[in-house]
Amino acid sequence: MVMGLEEGMQFWASLAVVLAFFGSVFSYFVLRPLYEAIQDLRLTLKDLRDDMKKSEERRHVLEVRLAEVDQSTRSAHHRLDDHINKEG
Fold it and tell me: Alpha helices, DSSP H only, in the chain?
């Protein structure tokens, strides 16, 4: 059962068409959803990084405000102590 050159080329051409078909089906049903999921994950991670950066900036602002309130409270206590000591 020896194939001729033309039959062999037809076999390989048919095999190439079948493999190309299955490759495109695999790409459409497997690779495309994976790629979309990876893109969604990438966007989610970017959003998380942005949220973390904003949170860090807000935390820093709150730390500065807390330090200002602490200093103001110390100053007020110092003034009250001075006032009490003058009257006392």
Answer: 5-26, 32-87
Amino acid found at 64: V
- State how far the Cα of 61 lies from the Cα of 58, in Å rounded to an integer: 5
Sole residue written with tokens 């999921």 = 37
> How many angstroms separate the CA atoms of 85 and 83, rounded?
5
Distance CA 28, CA 36 (A): 11
Rounded to a whole number, what is the distance in angstroms from the first to the last CA of the chain? 121
Question: What pLDDT does residue 4 have?
Answer: 81
The Cα–Cα gap between 18 and 5 comes to 20
**Whether the model pTM is above 0.70:** no
Query: How do residues 1-47 score in pLDDT, each as one tens digit?
Result: 566 888 989 999 999 999 999 999 999 999 999 999 999 999 999 99
